[in-house]
Amino acid sequence: MSGTVILSEGEEFDHVIQEVSKYINLYVMAFEKDERTITRLEKRENMYGGNGTVYMIQMFDQKELANNRLASYMVLLNKGDESGFHTHSVRNEQELYVVFHGTGEYRERTGTDGPIRKKTLQKGDITAISSIGYHSVENTGDEPLIMFVITTNNP
Asked: What pTM was estimated for this model as a whole?
């Protein structure tokens, strides 16, 4: 995976938030906590060897959710943006993608050389990968592909 840049202000930050806000509310009501919006916006170029840029809109602080490493929106703004093949085996994780907007192609395989299974994604679709699998996703449409990602681990 290439480096992650935290965006906290500026034109790019405003653009991403404005585009995503056309389709979803960036809002959290966590139990016994103040209502809030995002905790941070991460920009990942060529994520896991994929093409283009992936934005991760983090909705929770690190370690805020029990046995969860991640609960955020993954945003692929442009056609061709993708998160390349990667596994969650190192941390013994499972990961869910819930599609909120856009269209894309989801790919999964067992191991680094297994046959690739593909699925066209659209609003409402859910994918799940276990720690033995590898997966990737690409925006194949003309609008942003926005998915909510939940990564859990089995400590």
From this structure: 0.92
